[in-house]
Structures are given as structure tokens and as C-alpha cells.
Amino acid sequence: MPIPEDVTGHEIDKDVQQELQSLPKGLAEDVAKNLVMVAKLIDEDPEQAYAYSKIALRLASRVAAVREAAGFAAYANQKYSEALAEFRAARRMTGSVELWPVMADCERGLGRPEKALDMAGAPEVHKLDKAGQVEMRLVAAGARRDMDQIDAAIVTLQSPELASNSAQPWTARLRYAYADALLAAGREDEAREWFAKVVESDKDGSTDASDRLAELEGVEFVDALGDDEADEAPTAAPETAPDASADDEE
Q1: Each residue of 109-151: pLDDT tens digit?
Q2: Any alpha helices (H) in 147-170, and if so which ranges?
Q3: Distance between CA 172 and CA 191 in Å, rounded?
């Protein structure tokens, strides 16, 4: 698959670059470029990202970072069985528990929420950093909702991180999950309150909390110009004849 000329492979994290040093130089560069493409495309074009990940996997399947990237590309395409296999392989290579929450979420994707809950109670969770523990809590709450245990999901999300006033990278997502669970439980007033808190903490607009809040408050969005004003608004002037002639001559 083609790789843009401006992609050098040096864009990847230093830790990954270090992993790739075990490969011959030319091969390491090819793998690095494909990993860069995975990272660039995984959100906007997950299918293409998946294709690049398969190339990297074919070139260097014994590199943990490659297995992890392939796992996330498969995960983005809802290929949960494949993603889980790649994450397990990466974990065996590194011994790290960092991927534990996303592995549990793959179990959810495979229709096994009970397995995800088992993983949420495993000793590995205590080895996760704070961000990982919050992610595990979100996965566990999602598993509860998969099993129609809405009240249990709400309780699962109640934590010091949820109550904290300090904004962290996970704050908006945690509050959003809590607000959504409250709404699913019919606790609309509380849901409205928490969606408002999401809006406060979601500086990047990564959630649709503002829309959800507006919907709960019965706000309807209308065009800035009324019908009469729209009718009176000036129309764009047509292109002049000289411009059109110039185009024809070209």
C-alpha cells in the first residue's frame, strides 16, 4: 500500500523505535512507516488503518508494538476476536497489564459481559495506573448495562474520580457514562445535572454532552436568520464575464 512521501517513520514514539531496533534497518523503517499510517488513519479511516496494520504484522509479528497496533486496528473495525488475540500476544511479550481494560472490552464486543466483569475483579486491575483503572471501571459499567443491570452500572461508576473537581483526561468520559446511565434508569434530573458537568469538563468537545443536555432541557436549534431575514439577505453576485472567458481560454 502506498505511503505518503512525508511519512518518514520517525513520527512514532521513542519506545516503539527502540523496539524496532531489533530488526534490520531497512525493515525497521518499513515497519515504522506502516505503524505511522495506522496511527494517522485509525480514527478517520479505520479500514485503511487495519490494512496498514496487517502489512506491519506480516513484516514484524514478533514485535510487541506491532501486535498492539494490529490489535487496536482490529478493535477499531469491531473485529473483537482478532483484536483480543493480538492484545494477548502483546501482553505475553511485554508482561504489561496496560491492555487489560481494552481486552475486557473485547470480551464485551464478543457478547461475553460476564467475562469482562471477571476481568474487572482480577488482580491485574490493581497494577493499572489511574487512567487504566478508570478505563476498567467504564468497561465494567458497560458490561453491567449489557446485562441490563442499570443500577449496578451506576454504582460501578460512583468513585472518587467521578466526584473529583479536578479535570483529568478521563473526566468527561466518566461523567458522560454516569449521566447516560442515570438517564437510562429514568433519573432525568440527575442526568441533566451530570451532562452539565460533562460540558464543563469537555473542553475539546469530544462528547455530544451539550446536545444531550439541550435535548433534556427542550431546547430547539433554529437558523440564525429568520425566514423574512433570509429572504432579504443579499445573494452572491454572479461571476463576471471576463473571469468566465479567462476560464474558457485556459
Answers
A1: 999 999 999 999 999 999 999 999 999 999 999 999 999 999 9
A2: 150-157, 160-163
A3: 14
